[in-house]
TrEMBL record:
Keyword Repeat: yes
InterPro entries on file: AAA+_ATPase (IPR003593), ABC_carbohydrate_import_ATPase (IPR050107), ABC_transporter-like_ATP-bd (IPR003439), ABC_transporter-like_CS (IPR017871), P-loop_NTPase (IPR027417)
Domain ABC transporter: 19-254, 253-509
Origin species: Trichocoleus desertorum GB2-A4
PROSITE patterns: ABC_TRANSPORTER_1 (PS00211), ABC_TRANSPORTER_2 (PS50893)
Record CDD domains: ABC_Carb_Monos_I, ABC_Carb_Monos_II
Keyword Membrane set for record: yes
Name assigned to this protein: Sugar ABC transporter ATP-binding protein
PANTHER family per UniProt: CARBOHYDRATE TRANSPORT ATP-BINDING PROTEIN MG119-RELATED, D-ALLOSE IMPORT ATP-BINDING PROTEIN ALSA-RELATED
Gene Ontology molecular functions: ATP binding
A Pfam family that the UniProt record links to this protein: ABC_tran
Amino acid sequence: MTTDIRASSPEGAIATPVLEMRGITKRFHGVPALQGVNLIIYPGEVHALMGENGAGKSTLMKILAGAYIADEGEILINGRPVNITDPAIARQSGINLIYQELNVAPNLTVTENMFMGRELRRGPFLDRDGMEREAAQVLRTLGASFTTHDIVGDLAIAEQQQVEIARALKDNSRILVMDEPTAALSDRETEHLFEVIRRLRSDGIAIIYISHRMEEIYALSDRVSVLRDGQYIGSLTRSEISPDRLVQMMVGRPMQDFYEHQRQSTPGPVVLEVRNMSDGRKVQPASFSVHAGEVLGLAGLVGAGRTELSRLIFGADPKTSGEVFLNGQKLNINSPGDAIAAGIGYVPEDRKDQGLFLEMSSRKNIVLNRLKQDAHAGLVNWGAVNQVATDAVENFNIRLANLEIRAVDLSGGNQQKLLLARWLAIKPRVILLDEPTRGVDIGAKSEIYRIISNLAAEGVAILMVSSELPEVVGMSDRVLVMREGELVGELGGSTGRQITQENIMAYATGASEVAGS
């Protein structure tokens, strides 16, 4: 681990940092959000800034962008101290921040967005030709596929993001901060963004890249700096980056302690049994069982049918065939309400569109599934309801100021824990988890793994769909693998086949023989 790594220029000379943040401290109402943080950025590097939610990443970047003013510390640009007291000074200093939530005017053209508030003039008139020429040149630099005349609202999200980048380049930015830039992008759009970032890096622009996605860090980063609890932990060069080191720096413990679930040596009795479940299209007849206290991983490539199978079991989609048994008793599940009444919970992969009621309070989101349970003669026992919500916040370490905070105002990790809390409030015998840690930072992942392990220890049967192979390997007692709508293999348990990433992919792709089979 290093704290002051000198990057070399192409000629081999030591480069001068384009940015130095020294001893940055920020307090809110007397509580420190940042404590003496240092950050050094060099020209032409992609520098990842990592840390769990609440680590101080956003606060540090808002100080750099002029949205906040540090209580202590100094900022140097190209070796010279600058006093950044507002966003205008930050832009003049060559700093631009592209937020996760895009800041574009959808009804204006690309050129109008790029020059908004800083239009070129020729005397009293707007210099439209000059703005069009400058905008077109920047778009050529980016390799953009749209034109200066296009209405921004008609562009895809990835293209709107390029408009923001183009606006920053037009302002001669030398430091570009990107906050979770791929959150709303497809895989193809993400790869195109990476091409843009590499092009900017080759032009000498320094990019501070904030992301919780490890694969992006490996693909792009020249260096990584880590914050934890408002403090600078250290930096790693590209050759030093590894999952073990990053996890330990971010959460304060080694990778081997990250997945807390201990595999069962002796499975409990069968709780959930699924027979010949199919929708006649994306899911071919599937049969399997889940034992008490077992985490059964469901793996496969995107489009293999994992989510569709989960939704059929829960009654969210119509089936053409299939039976569900709970503790040996056949269930008649034709809707999610039937599944809930039987003691089956389901955490969907898209928490915002399918899981949470974003405009409702955290309290209501937690207790929604058990209001009927806590009602007598049509009257809700609000004392019991409030106690359930209060206990959930404490047990799941949901970070919020109070229970009336809306779900939409929470971080991704806290939203996911809120959704878990709602389903666990009904004390399910079976829980279906579809991508339980998607879109959350590594600290929240660790806490969600703890919750899953505790559920298994209490005897809950867990079916976990995940696209993250380390997660599947680390958390599953057994693994079923789907390919093109069919269950094609099983690992772990009594199969004698080891749960490894290689074996999962061998089944998922049909490309090679599974080790141990």
